[in-house]
Fold:
Amino acid sequence: MADITRRLGWRHLRGTPTAHIRHHRSGQLVHDGPGLSFWFRSLTAAVSEIPVDDRELAMTFHARTADFQDVTVQATVTYRIGDPALAAARLDFSVDPDTGAWRGTPLEQLATLLTETAQEHALDVLARTPLSAALTDGVSTVRERLAAGLAAQPRLPDTGIEVVAVRVVALRPEPEVERALRTPAREQIQQEADRATYERRAVAVERERAIAENELASRIELARREERLVEQRGTNARREAEEQAAADAVRADAEAARTVRLAQAEADKVVRLARAAAEQEREVGEARAQARAAWLRVHAEADVATLHALAAMRVAENLPDIESVTISPDVLTGLLAKLGGAGSGAGGAGA
Structure:
């Protein structure tokens, strides 16, 4: 929209570099070009503003394929006004001298023209294309057809329109058809996922089996080694017992020999002692016999009185020690009586 300033019946217009201004005064073209700035009187002026920049026109329309399936086409057409004078002559780009706004809707007219033209060519190409082919190669096919159709449309150059680019964003079927078409692909993807899952599980099972076999082999090897260890321990224990028995036998033989030697020595000692005791006893007996013989010779040669004296002495030697003697009156009377009787007898014998 043009920038217009009002001053006491005059108007000042300031354009932009992307807007082509055409100013007519009393039917004569006074100003013509982009980015103009000038004063004018609103009562005698006719001003048009034609945009010359590139513009994007997004369009969406429905079409039907060769197999009677509805599809939605989303496309974008980039265009510009290449001949502003021709466009201003064919379309109403005049602006209000007080506000700078367009009096009509020229851009909407251009959009309708481009949309209908593009839709015509898209419908024509899709009507001869099955849905599967349209979904597979339809985007490029429709884009090429739209570009060729818009370039060959005579009304666009006659209106001063130049098509810069054509882009087809998407070509989609109805939601129900799209879901139906997605089902086989989803099933295939699900089957691939299931197959991958099964393969992964199979690999996991195979690995678990390998691990189990390794563990079992390890256990078998461990059991075999334990068996060897037990056998070796038994062999070692048996060998140790045999060596211990041999050592015990050697010790027993040595102890028996030692005991025999000690017993033999003890027996020899006892024999020697017995012989010595017997010899001593014999010698003592001989000595006693000799002493007895000597004693007997002495007594045989001695007189009777000497023998009586020796006997008394021997009796006296063998009597017990008498420390005190208690004589009762009865014993004393008896002794005295015996002594008296003995004296009387002796006196009578003397007489």
